[in-house]
Amino acid sequence: MNRFSSVLVANRGEIAVRVIRTARELGYRTIAVYSEADALAPHVQLADEAVLIGPAPVKDSYLDPQRILAAAQQTHAEAVHPGYGFLSENADFARACAEAGLVFIGPSAEAIDAMGNKGAAKRLMLEAGVPCIPGYQSPEQGDATLQAAAADIGVPLMVKAAAGGGGRGMRLVENLDDLATALASARSEAENAFGSGELILEKAVQQPRHVEVQVFGDEHGNVIHLGERDCSVQRRHQKVVEEAPCPVLSSDQRAAMGRAAVEAARSIDYIGAGTVEFLLGGDGSFYFLEMNTRLQVEHPVTELITGLDLVALQLRIAQGEALPLSQDDVSLSGHAIEVRLYAEDSENDFLPAAGTAQRWHPPSGAGVRVDHGLVPGQVVSPFYDPLVAKLIASGPDRETARRRLARALRSTALLGLPNNREFLLDVIEHPVFAAGEATTAFIAEQFPQGYRPPRPTATHLLLGACLQYREQARQAGTARHRTGIGGWSGNRRLSTPFAYADADKDGGTSVAVEERCADHYCLTLADTEHRLQWLAETEPGCARVDLDGHQFDLVYSFPGPGEVAVQWRGRAALLCNTLSAALALAGDSGSGTVTAPMHGSVLALNVSEGEQVEVGAELAVIEAMKMEHRLCAEIAGTVSRVMVGAGEQVAAGAVLLEIT
């Protein structure tokens, strides 16, 4: 028996919070690790102890095995839970834990190795009789060999990196004339991402579903499966929505796929939680894709339909106990759907984003679960994966779960940084998804031009103008019951104008705000008057208002000068008052202080002290979340101070240089 009473969680964010909570409930002493960027993160505060393991970059902290092992030694930890990502599928780390006398809560290093290379894994699965996609998976990697194999397979085919995953090193080839280019680009990307340029080729299964089976094995030779999850809604081969069970799988197909998954795990003496992934064709045939030798991001949907705590099960198995249930004991009840809330710019090809979560209000209600590691005011760093939360809804049937999830998304508020909440809502409410017909081609087919959220409504404009009026009054130190203003009337009505240039295609819409008395406003939009009463501030950034006799809640924040973000009925709008912007420009021709717009690295510094610059001159380039941000001069003058150099890491708001 591998008895232990303390667990170090070698991860961060929502999965670290998730593991720590279950471990604490079961009586384990919990230890968190954190980088300098995560010093105040929720997983750090939740754990019994926490150890700083280095600066923000992952290679110097969460991906450094020696720092993790040193933290375990310092805190006398007895076991390590790797979560997912980072070192969770690193066989060398699993070995190092064992050599250090630590229980690695996961499979053996040999099992991780066996499934860590897609080519080797596929060869093993063919030997075990698991259905595999026709293709080429041999170690010989010469271009001539690969081209000959491709000709035998035929198009369309997939070129895939043998190591790693996440869609990197993957190319679809629909014409053999394009094969050479696909091989070169996939190999280069794979080498950069995984340190290995080995490739495999597979016949492309057109518009399949991505279906995976949760498996568990113990040290006593028992292996079971806990049903399947449908993860077909993806973009760039990254999962966005997951559900259990698969809406189109018959009971016979479920049993056959479950048996194949169990055989795959049994063939490598698998211990712990793992996931065997398959492609499901339109004809009902399925093929082995890969095996993830860890807990999956989407494990909550399996928990909700089985009633099992998978982290608790991992801990029991790691202790050397036998599985507490047999295959016949596994029963699936109801339906569950999960969406991944990312900090990303949905309108800009879903590029990762960073910023401050000025408002974070997770949903609640029957059948709703939220796994997250976020608090209001927290900075979402560019150094890590942009996943900030998972929203999961369950119900007795798929439609109830889907409807609950849509409501949960509408009542979720994350203001202050770009995120994909509204995109997720449009996916969940899309007729194709609602009918259970989404395949891996769903996003490309239903959003062929990318994603564009609905434009702000008239209600958004009215609310935004009133909010900005109140904020201006607060900043001016003016009480609501202003002598000579509140309740005042005379020959001329006093009103404050607001204009929002991006409000409509015709060039903007203006709103005039007049305060009639305390918390009562008259708002004029397109020559129509509206009455708004501010009923209550239910909590910071949340309010109850009455607009023309209609009461409702709203969430808001003020991201920057002249800006207001307001969310109503699940739709958020970021509005910029062009009148205040114009006044600011008239009073200030620009700033001579240049600051970092977000956490990142100084990729290039194009000026030096004493140099003359003109308005618009490129001063520096900041790299954050794999994007380049070019900083230009707002005023003409002389560079008087330079505080950073190329290659340095900088925090959001840090002063980079000054122009006099």
From TrEMBL:
Coiled coil: none annotated. Its cofactor is biotin. Transmembrane segments: none annotated. Pathway: Lipid metabolism; malonyl-CoA biosynthesis; malonyl-CoA from acetyl-CoA: step 1/1. It catalyses: N(6)-biotinyl-L-lysyl-[protein] + hydrogencarbonate + ATP = N(6)-carboxybiotinyl-L-lysyl-[protein] + ADP + phosphate + H(+). Residues 3-448 form the Biotin carboxylation domain. Residues 583-660 form the Lipoyl-binding domain. One of its GO terms (molecular function) is metal ion binding. Keywords: ATP-binding, Biotin, Ligase, Nucleotide-binding. Pfam families: Biotin_carb_C, Biotin_carb_N, Biotin_lipoyl, CPSase_L_D2. InterPro entries: ATP-grasp, BC-like_N, Biotin_carboxylase_complex, Biotin_carboxylation_dom, Biotin_COase_C, Biotin_lipoyl, CPAse_ATP-bd, PreATP-grasp_dom_sf. Residues 122-319 form the ATP-grasp domain. This protein is a component of the acetyl coenzyme A carboxylase complex; first, biotin carboxylase catalyzes the carboxylation of the carrier protein and then the transcarboxylase transfers the carboxyl group to form malonyl-CoA. Acetyl-CoA carboxylase is a heterohexamer of biotin carboxyl carrier protein, biotin carboxylase and the two subunits of carboxyl transferase in a 2:2 complex. This is Biotin carboxylase.
